[in-house]
Amino acid sequence: KNDARTATDAAASRQAAASGRPAAVTVRGARKAFGSKEVLRDVSLTIHEGEILSLIGPSGAGKSTMLRCMTLLDRFDSADFSYGDLEVCTPERGYLPQAVREARMRFGIVFQNYNLFPHMTVLQNVTDAPVVVQRRDKAEVEEQARALLARLGLTEHADKVPDQLSGGQQQRVAIARALCMNPRVIYFDEATSALDPKLTADMQQLMRELADEGMAIGIVTHEMGFARSVSDRVCFLFDGQIAEEGTPEEVIEHPVDERTRSFLSRAE
Ligand code: ADP
Ligand code: MG
């Protein structure tokens, strides 16, 4: 109980510190419809440098749509949307093509199924985008990639192909690949759904280290236990709207909104 108290206090003070730091990504008033179905209805969300934010909520709430739009795989119908001081979309002017290209350099994504290139080695998976997309020097990128692989415990797997690795190892390759782009924001889609408890704990520690280095981290998850223990801040999305937002203590332990309460009581 004391440990829980301490963790809660730590999350609250981290959140207070993070909210004073610059925003790494900001979305205000986001709207998105598929046909006549409004999937995002005036959603606002900010992730600060050094902050871990989880987006939670029931199936169909709009979490994946929000993530797809924030990662420019899809587009909001309307929003005020920036990466740092780079305005990507405004309600008046829509998407700004040059800013969209620049914004793609500012974030990395770790997909649920990792999306590794099956025919490339681990090292090639990690170096491909920095060399091809970012047009960086190949030797310099390889040096960074090997350092990242070492950090993630993958040194001896550098020349293997993804099929030769376990799920947890493949996920760490996906993380190394995202980090090698030197992003300011990293997104995780259901980061822990395929991991055992030990790997989940490792993942939590890694996310905390990255946040402490200043990375902004956005997580979409349906796993309340993980969201509870890793997040500085939690946003509960319900039917295309943020129903509740706050520390994990506030949103997951003591929800005020009736929709959050009902979802969490069913999720137990
Ligand atoms: P979540 O990730 O929270 O489960 P989604 O963002 O996947 O929610 O979906 C939100 C709503 O949008 C759902 O009703 C879903 O059926 C609908 N939806 C998502 N993608 C599409 C699409 N490409 N075309 C039509 N409807 C979609
Ligand atoms: Mg989803």
UniProtKB/TrEMBL annotation:
Instruction: Please list the residue ranges that the record marks as compositionally biased, kind Basic and acidic residues.
Output: 1-6
Q: Which InterPro entries match?
A: AAA+_ATPase, ABC_ATPase_HisP-typ, ABC_transporter-like_ATP-bd, ABC_transporter-like_CS, MetN_ABC_transporter-like, P-loop_NTPase
Q: Is Ion transport one of the keywords UniProt gives this record?
A: no
* UniProt entry keywords in alphabetical sequence: Amino-acid transport, ATP-binding, Cell membrane, Membrane, Nucleotide-binding, Transport
Bilayer topology term: Peripheral membrane protein
List GO molecular-function terms, semicolon-separated.
ATP binding
Q: Which residues cross the membrane?
A: none
Where is it mostly found? membrane
Cellular location of this protein?
Answer: Cell membrane
* Keyword Cell inner membrane part of the UniProt annotation: no
Would you identify the family this protein belongs to, as annotated?
Belongs to the ABC transporter superfamily.
* Residue ranges, annotated region (Disordered): 1-17
Could you tell me the superkingdom of the organism this chain comes from?
Bacteria
Identify this protein by name. Answer: Amino acid ABC transporter ATP-binding protein
Q: Which Gene3D superfamilies match?
A: P-loop containing nucleotide triphosphate hydrolases
